Amino acid sequence: MSSSDFSQKVQDAIMKGFIAAGISLGTRLKLFDAIASLSVSQETAVTTQVIADYTKCKERYIREWINGMVCADMVDHCVENGIDKYWLAPFRLPALIHSAEGCPASSSQLLSGVTQNSRSVEACFPIDGPPGTEVDDYPGLHEFLATKYSPLQDVNKIDAILNDEQLIKKLEKGAKVIELGCGAAHPVRTMATRFPNSSFVASELVKVFYPELKRTVKTWPTSLCNSGRV
């Protein structure tokens, strides 16, 4: 790879970061959902003012955000009589709106959740810096991980883990499994359902996960252990 090729690779990565930030913003504010509710075809495309009125947001901010999403090919755009209009084509909906099962755009919220305290993370790097950050330094992040993000990862995680025939045979016959740092225990729940002959233990230190974790173990054949008793 040449220096110019690598430079382009770095620039592309940075640009994709900006796009991901825009997707995260649109997901958190449910702007994609709003556009989908208003129009899914060019014939019914709407203006930024219509979207702003529908979402009770400022038109200027809607305009700046949506034009960025158009440039990133996330939102459809046309010009009618000199007026910019927007819509979401049906093929985009499964990837962008909340109601779609396994919506990948939801995971973009991790970006804002993780980077919101980047200055504190930078301060931890020097030898004389603090040892680390706290859970409370990332408000909303773990709640998102517990209730929104973990379910999206069920299939991906299980498929990645269960790629060994011998492992699958052990689980089918009956094995003891523990997941440390399980979050809301969605992967364990999925595995417990798929392999009823095995027993599963979910252990988590972060208390913000406990409510969702307790709901999970009441509904599914999964054992819950407080980390202090594991």
Structure description:
With 230 residues, the protein is mainly alpha-helical. The protein has two domains: 3-111, Winged helix-like DNA-binding domain superfamily/Winged helix DNA-binding domain (Arc Repressor Mutant, subunit A, Orthogonal Bundle), CATH 1.10.10; 116-229, Rossmann fold (3-Layer(aba) Sandwich). 53% of the residues lie in helices and 10% in strands. The protein has eleven helices and five strands; from the N terminus they run ααααββαααααβαβαβ. The chain has helices at 3-28, 31-38, 48-55, 59-71, 93-96, 109-115, 118-124, 141-161, 165-173, 186-194, 210-219, and strands at residues 76-80, 83-87, 176-180, 199-203, 223-224. A three-stranded parallel sheet has the order 3-4-5, with helices on one face. The protein has a two-stranded antiparallel ribbon with strand order 1-2. Helix 3 crosses helix 4 (59-71), helix 6 crosses helix 8 (141-161) and helix 8 (141-161) packs parallel to helix 10.
Q: Would you count the extended β strands for me?
A: 5
Order of helices and strands: HHHHEEHHHHHEHEHE
Query: If strands are numbered along the chain, what order do they take across the biggest sheet?
Result: 3-4-5
Architecture of the largest domain in CATH? 3-Layer(aba) Sandwich
Beta-strand portion reads 5-15%
Give the number of domains: 2
Could you estimate the helical fraction of the residues in percent? 40-55%
Based on secondary structure, the structural category is mainly alpha
